[in-house]
Amino acid sequence: MKFTFYGHACFAVETGGKKILFDPFITHNELAKDINVDTIGADFILLSHGHSDHVADVASIAKRTGALVIAAYEVIDWVKKQGIENVHPINFGATIFPFGKLHFLPAAHSSTMPDGSSGGAPGGFILHGAEKKFYYSGDTCVTMDMQLVPRYAKLDFAILPIGGNFTMDVEDAVIAAEFIQCKKIIGVHYDTFGYIKINKDEAKATFAAAGNELLLPAIGETIEL
Q1: What is the pLDDT of residues 57-81, one digit of tens each?
Q2: Considering only CA atoms, which of 100, 103, 101, 72 is closest in space to residue 88?
Q3: Number of domains in the chain
Q4: In this structure, what DSSP letter does residue 216 have?
Q5: Model-level pTM greater than 0.90?
Q6: Residue 193 gets which letter from DSSP?
Q7: Domain annotation covers residue 6
């Protein structure tokens, strides 16, 4: 499975011949200025919640690619107002898509759309792909509900926020890794804003001390998982 990091909490995975893009926020991210959003392909776009730093580029990418946009019902309501018709609203639970089974799970955060309307409840995803199973928590603090994740899937890797202030910090993400029983973690949602700057070497050392591996791909980098 290929994983490409586009900065902040935006990434794509390629599995089963499909490209799945998560939380597109590129053109307004100064750290991702070298990424040409018009070259990013997608068959599916998944949105964890409604904040602008997770949905800013969904309209342009969805219109160009024709990707199916999957998100909470309230987020989809806003997406449709942007002129996107290929959508699939969900709420917490499990749904089957062409790329595999998808769990949408609660996250402890907030969710407001860029126009101020409600984004419903924020969430995260477990993707049960043919090649790998992974969990993307979305923006969240540590929650006891994360201990349910291993009941749903034996994870190959997980994507967790590590920047703190708005989400988990590094130390809390280590606890989350324990809860979800996953040793290979990809860190996201850090360094984009002043509030969420981290020391990458210290972060990796903190994970290593707990017997985990923290991967921090460069923006635009593709890694094999």
Answers
A1: 999 999 999 999 999 999 999 999 9
A2: 72
A3: 1
A4: -
A5: yes
A6: S
A7: yes
